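User: Can you recover a sequence for this backbone? Please restate the input before giving your answer.

Assistant: Of course. Working from this structure:
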């Protein structure tokens, strides 16, 4: 206002954060967070244990095979129980 640099927060990079390097780093962080949230919203980033996702994907395949008549009800139940039995790994 008075012709000096009294209000450094009015510039774009310094709008929210003081200091040029800190401001640039924080803006990059904000952009990365927004990109992460957008990818998560689209579904490209999945959260969870891969082993659990594999089990549920396998269960869906098993259900489709049962629905098509490829396997009997007895085979379906046996395979489903094998799929979800507690693992003996460490």
């Amino acid at each position: 206002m008075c012709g000096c640099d009294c209000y450094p927060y009015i510039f774009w990079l310094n709008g929210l954060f003081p200091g040029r390097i800190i401001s640039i780093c924080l803006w990059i962080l904000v952009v990365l967070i927004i990109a992460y949230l957008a990818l998560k919203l689209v579904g490209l980033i999945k959260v969870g244990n891969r082993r659990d996702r594999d089990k549920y994907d396998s269960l869906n395949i098993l259900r489709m095979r049962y629905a098509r008549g490829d396997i009997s009800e007895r085979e379906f139940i046996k395979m489903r129980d094998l799929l979800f039995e507690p693992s003996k790994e460490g």
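That completes the design. The helical segments are 20-42, 50-68, 73-83.
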